Amino acid sequence: MSESTWEAVDRYFGDLLLAKDPALEAALTESEAAGLPEIAVAPNQGALLNLLAKAIGARRILEIGTLGGYSTVWLARALPADGKLVSLEVSPKHAEVARRNVDNAGLSGVVEIRVGRAIDLLPRITSDEGPFDLVFVDADKPSNPDYFDWAVRLARKGSLIVIDNVVRGGAVADGDSFDPNVKGVRSLAERMAADKRVSATVIQTVGVKGYDGLAIALVL
User: Fold this and answer.
1) C-alpha atoms less than 13 angstroms from C-alpha of 105 in its C-beta half-sphere
2) I need a labelling partner for 194 at 20 to 30 A (CA). Which of 95, 126, 186, 220 fits?
């Protein structure tokens, strides 16, 4: 199967199952206009995040890596009116774009975007802000093991941890790779395997974002 086939299938199901959404489309348009990298989750993946959050009745969500706020909007829409989403973004420029997109989606009342290195911001999250019911990690891959540790620490029994881009086009299977992104994902996988606090799996994905995958862990 070619990548064009994957894209065609994504378009087919997306057109059928996902309604046109001006706020989400604007988020992508604004992000592109601002020169942000085109690495946001695909629409069907955003819908999956939304469904997972709804399925567990999430009231508090932590996102590590905001980019332009596309996934933030998907996740925040799953929250009740008194819910809270905290999103951590290292780039002030990206955070500015994301705030505009979140405001445009009418979600500024439930979303707070904090700027700085996630590894520095995570220890500052106060006890009354958590525990988080769902943690979505889509940031620098070499830090994935550390983000996972913090996600478990800030979660509760029954929380979900979702980590994006863990297949790396299949490169994750190469144990001799010197790519820091691949090494970060492999360290993450080894840490999840050894951590008795979670039960985890990885789903490979193909589509408009190419060949990659998601790690999903349930906190026990």
Assistant:
1) 30
2) 126
CB–CB of 79/59 below 8 Å? Answer: yes
Q: Does domain 3-219 match CATH 3.40.50.150?
A: yes
> Which amino acid would we find at residue 17?
L
Under DSSP, is residue 54 helix (H, G, I), strand (E, B) or coil? helix
Which alpha helices (DSSP H) does the chain contain, by range? 3-17, 22-33, 43-55, 70-76, 92-104, 118-121, 144-153, 180-194
Q: In what order do the strands lie in the sheet with 198-207?
A: 111-115, 84-89, 60-64, 132-137, 155-164, 210-219, 198-207
- Give the residue extent of every domain in the chain: 3-219
Query: 210-219 and 198-207 as β-strands: parallel, antiparallel, unpaired?
Result: antiparallel
Q: pLDDT digit of tens for each residue in the chain (220 aa)?
A: 789 999 999 999 999 999 999 999 999 999 999 999 999 999 999 999 999 999 999 999 999 999 999 999 999 999 999 999 999 999 999 999 999 999 999 999 999 999 999 999 999 999 889 999 999 999 999 999 999 999 999 999 999 999 999 999 999 999 999 999 999 999 999 999 999 999 999 999 999 999 999 999 999 9
Whole-angstrom distance between the N-terminal and C-terminal Cα of the chain? 38
Q: Kindly give, in sequence order, each residue whose CB lies less than 8 Å from that of residue 89, ignoring residues fewer than 6 positions away.
A: 65, 66, 67, 95, 98, 113, 114, 115
Give the amino acid at 138. Answer: D
> Considering the entire predicted model, what is its pTM?
0.97
